[in-house]
Specification:
The structure holds 2 protein chains of 2 kinds.
Chain A: H1 16-26, E1 31-36, E2 41-45, H2 50-59, E3 67-75, E4 83-91, E5 96-104, E6 110-111, H3 120-131, E7 135-136
Parallel strand pairs in A: 2-5, 6-7
Antiparallel strand pairs in A: 1-2, 3-4, 4-5
Chain B: E1 4-12, E2 15-24, E3 36-42, E4 45-52, H1 60-64, H2 72-77, H3 84-99, H4 105-133, H5 138-158, E5 167-168, E6 171-172, H6 180-203, H7 206-212, H8 220-225, H9 231-234, H10 242-245, H11 266-290, H12 309-314, H13 316-328, E7 335-343, E8 346-354, E9 360-366, H14 368-373, H15 375-380, H16 385-395, H17 399-403
Antiparallel strand pairs in B: 1-2, 2-3, 3-4, 5-6, 7-8, 8-9
Helix pairs in contact in B: 3-4, 4-5, 4-11, 4-16, 5-6, 6-11, 11-16
Classes of the chains: A alpha/beta, B alpha+beta.
Amino acid sequence: MGHAFCADRKVRDMDIAQLLAKLHADYADSIEQPEMGLDMPSGRVDVTRIDAVCRLLKEDPDLRFDFLTDLCGVDHHPATPRFEVVYHLHSLSLRYRLRLKCRVDTDQEVPTVTSVWSTANWHERETYDMYGIRFHGHPDLRRIYLWDEFDGFPLRKDYPLRGYQDDYNPFGEPPATS
Amino acid sequence: MTEINVLQETTSDDGLSREMLLNLGPQHPSTHGVLRVVLKLDGERITGVDTIIGYLHRGTEKLAEDFTYTQVIPLTDRLDYLCQPSNNLAYALSVERLLGIEAPPRAQYIRVMMAELARISGHLLITGALPMDLGAMTVLLYVMREREMVMDLFEMATGARMHSSYCRVGGIRQDLPDGFVERARDFCDVFPKRIKDYEQLVAKNRVFLKRTVGVGVINAAEAVDLGLSGPNLRASGVDWDLRRDEPYEIYQELNFEVIGREGGDCYDRWWCRVEEMRQSVRIIEQCLDQMPDGPTQVDDPGIAFPPPKVKVQESMEALIHHFQLAAYGFKVPRGEAYVGTEAPKGELGFYLISDGTEKPFRVKIRAPSFVNLQALGMLVNRGYLADMIAMIGSLDPVMAEVDK
């Protein structure tokens, strides 16, 4: 097995400190305060620029973040801005991981990264399904787990654990509107 | 398959052409669970596909936010229910990363050994189920016999065949029982011969080859773009295995090969899994040889659960302590951590955010089956209806993990 994705794995000439230095130097205006976390470097990105930053990180020959491991939402209710979208990037050839976080306000749309990594498609649908965060430019933004008529976004912190009471769910909370 | 909707019917010089909508699943044996696929067909050719999931959605992530860190462990059993110990391990590792602790060496060896047994259990099923979907029933019956041996080992060590919940944060629940090592060695002696049997039954079977070789090809660039992981990625020629490349636990002290193929078709994906089982046997044997004696839980009474039973029965303080741990759990410092592990299906990662309390603020499960299944939509668009069954099988999704 000698593929382009793994051929130069052993020639990683930067360690984490150098990766951070590079992020500080070349991405100072797009990634705020990149720093090493418990597991991997992590930084904040302005949500309106996330797709452009992701594309740059993927195409940078020194970084090559070609693999999107995970994309998820986080709800910080009642803080504002309320949501956070977290991207876990991975460079298979250079063995870097990087976490990008965007603050997203209610009703704010996030530019999709499906054009950068097609795997983002289902991740973004899941984030929409669970948090109601909309992704601008997504080819097919539908609910993925729940049915289309479902009311509410279950992973939001103000959504009750047992759901709302209806014909099928006698143990739920009384509906919020009444 | 229930009803067929004819969308469009045209007659041309070539004959009658019909575009049909065909519903496959969610109650169909070849979809390996409650997967529903709505297919647009032109004759036998697939022109469009809509993968519909969520029939098994249980809200694991929501539930986890209301559970203590120890209570989440049984929830992880129910993700990939063929390979529970590796799910437990991935979760325990993430919490340990947040706490900044490590399990003692003996516990690490036992966890790795159980995770590899789980890999065998998961791969065995697909070794038999993919040929069965394609009409070769026999091999499934053989793999079930060996899977029973793995189940017996699970039962012996954990008391449960399926939902073992064996790992704890900072170790494992209890040490291995007497006789386990011998029995595991027996299994390691017998099993490689049995793998040969499976290969003899199907690996060169002409029908099986016709149905899988060159079917559902994913090249390396597509596989990376789609975020595939595990055997699905390695079968496409990407040499990537977290056990070797980001070693966790004691994997760097073990010798094993990373199995890969170049072709990226259904046969390669199946073949990778069969070969990986041989490597798993190697790993288990090394674990049995090298396993040191010692404690199986971290030396921190604030975290290690359950506390020794003898003490609980003798001392009032220990009883109160046990109650505290069981009812309220332990606090985890504020922070966030993602730990990815090489689970049988691919990269299984837990992204945990802690707000400093006994319950996780956010648990995000990076479920490999969920990501792998997404490739179906792309694969199927190129094939015949009959090939789709092979594609679903070769991607090896477990719907409980897809739906979380």
